[in-house]
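hiii, so i know i said id send this last week but things got crazy w the move. better late than never?? heres the sequnce for the chain we talked about at the cafe, plus the structure i predicted for it. fair warning i was half asleep when i ran it
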Amino acid sequence: MQDEFLDLLDAAIYKEIASEALYLAARKRTRDPGAGALMEELAAEEKKHSQWLKEFKDKRATQKWHRGVVPNLRISEYLTSADTLEGAGLQDTLVFAMKKEQQAVDFYSRMTGLFRGNSAKSLCRKLVNEEMRHKLKLEVLYDGLFLVED
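okay and structure toks below
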């Protein structure tokens, strides 16, 4: 069971590093200053996650996880996004980022069901929660900027 936990940590570290790289690359593809700043902020959050996961793996460091249920506004479920952010503005960048965060939620949710050990399952649930927080932040921003109330 210890091996599956370490394998999960390695996969999570890789996923966070890949997400950071994706957001940094996206930042370079947009001309919109707001979109660029958002991508920079998301990349920094992903970097913090990968650093914490590395420390956790090496030293069994502790982390204050946000507890409780994270609301899902489901805004991104009704929107489509391009596969690239070449020249994208803030609205398209937000949709792209929401979709990527949902993919991370889905990944860790599936991983939860694959593991037998409680430690690995618990870590997956914590990672789902963190990714849901990212998505919620993006959805709230999108809602405030682009959704019109009747």
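btw The first helix runs from residue 2 to 29. thought thatd interest u
miss u guys!!
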